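Researcher: Sequence recovery benchmark, item below. Answer with residues only.
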């Protein structure tokens, strides 16, 4: 059962969706995947894709944020993951705007910001009015990091700080709402979050091979050393 608190007609919150023990296990699983999965430059989305990592925000030889793409459902508790997947399908009335000969591929994206001043600029994930996404913080604001607030630019500007979102709180919002993450001011662990049930429409007949360019080994080594600390 998912208890949702309405913020606006397009934004919902489920508080304490993941408890502290679940978060601890999720972060441990995520760290293992960061250390053991391949690192790639570009994103390929298709059925039966294998999990991979990405150096997400970087400049010159400094890495500010990393991502893990979980296609196989290896990190989150399966029961909780299914609750979110099903709720998004229910909210969207899944497939109402589906293109011909396509299917929706759903997966989870984990992001870890650990560079001071790292941020994500204002953007919009989709123009479709029916699509939703669910995000959840996996580290504690003001304890594990400072700054790094999620700002939603709907009819009224709303921030995760104003909503009092903490680790384990889930927020659903329409993908066509412009949003951003403000810069980290300081951090101990970093800003860790997961986008649950991210979706891409793919052509059913296109089963691509898992070929992708790999990242410079020196950058991967520096990132792994940082993760092991």
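Model:
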């Amino acid at each position: 059962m998912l208890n949702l608190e309405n913020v606006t007609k397009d934004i919902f919150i489920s508080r304490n969706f993941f408890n502290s023990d679940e978060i601890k296990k999720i972060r441990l699983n995520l760290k293992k995947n960061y250390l053991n999965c391949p690192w790639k430059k570009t994103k390929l989305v298709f059925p039966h894709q294998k999990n991979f990592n990405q150096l997400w925000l970087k400049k010159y030889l400094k890495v500010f944020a990393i991502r893990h793409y979980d296609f196989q459902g290896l990190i989150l508790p399966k029961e909780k993951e299914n609750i979110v997947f099903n709720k998004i399908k229910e909210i969207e009335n899944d497939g109402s705007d589906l293109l011909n000969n396509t299917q929706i591929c759903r997966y989870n994206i984990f992001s870890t910001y650990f560079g001071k001043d790292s941020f994500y600029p204002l953007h919009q994930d989709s123009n479709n009015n029916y699509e939703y996404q669910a995000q959840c913080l996996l580290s504690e604001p003001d304890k594990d990091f400072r700054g790094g607030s999620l700002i939603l630019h709907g009819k009224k500007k709303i921030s995760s700080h104003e909503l009092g979102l903490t680790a384990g709180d889930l927020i659903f919002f329409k993908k066509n709402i412009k949003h951003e993450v403000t810069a980290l001011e300081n951090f101990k662990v970093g800003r860790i979050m997961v986008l649950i049930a991210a979706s891409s429409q793919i052509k059913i007949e296109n089963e691509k091979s898992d070929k992708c360019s790999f990242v410079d080994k020196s950058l991967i080594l520096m990132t792994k050393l940082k993760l092991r600390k």
